[in-house]
Amino acid sequence: MIRKFFKISAGAFLCILMGCNSTKQVTSKENEMSTKETAKELINKGYLEAELIDNSKSKGDVCSTVIKLVNTKSSELLDPINIDGKYLELKNSKIWVKYTSLRMKNRCDEARPVDIVDIKKREE
Predict the structure, then answer these.
(1) Pairing with 106, which of 23, 82, 86, 115 sits 20 to 30 Å away (CA)?
(2) pLDDT by residue for the chain (124 residues), tens digit each?
(3) Whether residues 65 and 102 fall in one domain
(4) Strands 77-80 and 48-54
(5) Are residues 56 and 104 in the same domain?
């Protein structure tokens, strides 16, 4: 009687132990898919992949921060005229940016002026 109980308990313990490992693998695959879905959602909402570049050493105050778009035919540079202090901590990092173009004279030779709607940190 005790042997039979021991065999059943050992079998149940092994089944539970084997089941826990497979759950961890499924969870990591779900996290990878949710990250990809998040990128697709951001693209559908109008965000573009970019890099926030600290350009203060070469151009002074006017073009101190520029945004370089990543997945474009040419590496387009944007001059954010309304960049806030909260975004300055993201300098030299990869970002998602949503902006609107402005019809005004360029402040920088190589970048066109834009109005920042939103910036989110991009994790890759």
Answers:
(1) 86
(2) 777 766 787 767 666 766 665 544 555 555 554 556 588 888 899 999 999 988 777 655 567 888 999 887 777 899 998 887 777 788 888 999 999 999 988 888 888 999 999 998 888 6
(3) yes
(4) unpaired
(5) yes
Rounded Cα distance, 58 and 60, in Å: 6
The DSSP bridge pattern shows strands 111-121 and 48-54 to be: unpaired
User: Sign of dihedral through CA atoms 22, 26, 28, 29?
Assistant: positive
CB 65 within 8 A of CB 53: yes
Residues 63 and 108 in one domain: yes
Half-sphere exposure of 104 (CA within 13 A, CB side): 12
Q: Looking at the chain, which runs of residues are DSSP E strands?
A: 48-54, 65-69, 77-80, 93-101, 111-121
Q: Identify the CA nearest to 123 among candidates 31, 53, 27.
A: 31
